[in-house]
Each structure stands twice: as structure tokens, then as C-alpha cells.
Amino acid sequence: MVDVKNKRVFISVNDPSADVHCAGLIDALRQGGGGIEFVGIGGPKMAAAGCELIESTVGGAVMTYTAFAHVGHYYKLVQRVRRYLQEHPVDLVIVCDSPSFNFHVAKVAKKASVRTLFYVAPQLWAWGGWRIRKLRRWCDKLCCLLPFEEQWFRERGVDATFVGNPLLDKLPGDLTRLRKDYSHFEQQKAKIALMPGSRLAEIESLWRPMQEIAIELKRKYPGASFVAVAASEERRRLLEKTQVPGFACEYSVDTVRETAAAVDFSMVASGSATLEVASSGCPMVVMYQTNRILWQLVGRWLVHPKFFALVNLLADRELVPEFMPYFVSTEPIVRQIDAYLQDRSLLTRTSNDLIDMVEPLTHKKASEEVAQAVVEMLS
């Protein structure tokens, strides 16, 4: 690795998945022996990896439609970043995910004459394409997690590179053993995971419906069992506190892939967790909820992709059912899951298709690829 001693890198993170991504990036850079000093805003994973946090931001991340209530908080946070960069010069700023917040951080970095790397491309190809001008202005390097994004952004004047997905960095080279075989699957003993996401807004909108779906499935399959995955101990306590009467489950913390490998089916909040579940060969339904009025007035006119779920986007076909958004009832979701549980061949075929979709994405190690991009920018 090129000598980048005495270099200082500021990292901006605002949600748990980005905290994990950047912790992996820090580890990759330290393994290269670069001697870089890391400082920023983020979460416990980054701190454990050796990043000095000027403020902890992971834990209260919100989705777009509820972000308006937090404008004041985010404004103060951006101003704090601005003051820090003015008083403590850095050599590079890395912003990871959360574009509604990190666009402001990137703007602050540009005004401070600091080069900026975007880790996780904002999904402008899905909605908000007009923001490409801002991205070109504030982004010096863009690291994309989805294969098709590199060309899309390059055609629009952004220096973009596909780096792979950090969630897949630790997968084994041979994914054959991860395929599930349902030839002896017993519906009455089905093991089902509930994964309502890490953001508070996701939990608020999805946790209760997932439990209601589980209760309905339990009525038909009395021997079925359930496990809920929380992103942290704090989130586990929240899930337990808001558990619906009549619903029973085990709880697991920060074990999306491990839990998906141990169960027969999963209910998953839309997002990066769907890729982790897919990498375990676990069939799933993907769920997302939003404000019905805002969706009718704004969302459905702004969001244009053929599919919304990440695994379906990557496959360019519906590998798994997606309910994004749903408004009226959970009954269609119950029916869809029941149809899967009744069809062993469908479960096996879906497991195989998910592994086949994930396998090409494992050829790159994202943390190492982004680390190389960081070194090149620092050099």
C-alpha cells in the first residue's frame, strides 16, 4: 500500500448498516498498514474499529417521510461538522449512505476544499434524478454497490466504480452449501424469521404487521416457531416492549445472515438486509410501509423502478414477493407466505435462484476495493 501516514480522514455515517460498512473499511485500511487517523460521526462499530467519534449518530436514523421532524437536529449536526472541518483540517471526507443528510455534509466538505468520496451510491436512478447535478458538484469519487450503477452514473459525468457489496465480503467462495433443500420440509414445523429493520421508522411501521402475520400463520400451523432479529440490544428492548399480545418468539441481535440460514422463511424490511437473507438462500417476502397520502400525492410519481426490493432489482425479475408499500391489509401477505409454505419445490427453487443471484456479486471484496480508492485519493 502507498504510504499515507499522517493523513486524516473524516467519515460521516447516520445509520447502522453504514456504521458496519465503514467499520469494515477502516479495518481494511488498517490491515494495509496505512497509518491513517479516522474521525467522524457514526456508531459503535466505527468506534470499535478505531474511529474517533465527535458525535454518535447511529440509533435514531429515520426514513425520508419522517425526516422532516428532525430537520433542526440535522441542521445543528451539519453545522457541527462544518465547524470541525474549519478547525481541524482533514485530507478526505467519506460520506456513507443516508444521502438526504450526507449531501449536506458533502457540500460542507466542498466549501472546505476537501475531496469527498461517496460510499454507497444514492439511488438517483430510482427517484430524485435531478440531484445528479449536486452529486457531480460535491462528489470526487463514487463507490457503487450495484453492478448497473457504475455505467448509469458515468454516463452522467460522475467518476463511479462498482466495488461490490460489503455485506458479502465474508461469504465463502463456494456458495453451493448455502442452498436450502426443502424436500423433507414440514409446514407444521416451519421456522420463520421476522426482520423489521434497524431504523425506528421501519420498526414503527413494520413490527406490528409482521407480528399479526405471524399470529395468522400460527393459527394454521400450530407447530410453527418464530425468531425476531434486532439490529442492536437497544432495538431488541424496543421490539420486546412493543410485542403484540398473543405473539411469541425468540429474539436474536445482529444476526441477519445467521438467522436466515437457520430458518425456512423470512419476512424482511426492504433494504440491505434482503441481500443478507438472499446470501443465505432463504426465501422471503419483502415489506415496506409509508404514509398513504404522501405516496399517492408524491411517492408514486417520483419512484419509477420496475422493482423496489434490492434482490429483485439485482435479478431484474421478481425472485421474491414484494409488498412495497401495502396499505389496506396484511391478508395478501399471509396468503403469499402460506403459498410458499405449501410448495416445497417453490421454496427450493427460490433458494437456488437467490444463491445464483448473489454468487456473481461475491467476486469483489467491497471493503478492499473502497480502501484502494481511499489510498489513491489520499496519494
Description:
The chain has 379 residues and is α/β, with parallel strands linked by helices. It has two domains: 8-164 and 364-378, Rossmann fold; 176-361, 3-Layer(aba) Sandwich (Rossmann fold), CATH 3.40.50.2000. 43% of the residues lie in helices and 16% in strands. It is built from 15 helices and 13 strands. The protein has helices at residues 16-31, 44-49, 71-87, 99-111, 132-138, 149-154, 200-220, 233-241, 256-262, 273-278, 292-302, 310-315, 331-341, 344-358, 366-378; strands at 8-13, 37-42, 52-56, 92-96, 116-119, 141-144, 160-162, 191-195, 225-230, 250-253, 265-269, 284-287, 322-323. α5 (132-138) links the parallel β5 (116-119) and β6 (141-144). Residues 60-67 and 291-303 have low confidence and may be disordered.
What's a concise summary of this model?
With 379 residues, the chain is an alpha/beta fold. Helix content is 43%, strand content 16%. The chain has helices spanning 16-31, 44-49, 71-87, 99-111, 132-138, 149-154, 200-220, 233-241, 256-262, 273-278, 292-302, 310-315, 331-341, 344-358, 366-378, and strands spanning 8-13, 37-42, 52-56, 92-96, 116-119, 141-144, 160-162, 191-195, 225-230, 250-253, 265-269, 284-287, 322-323.
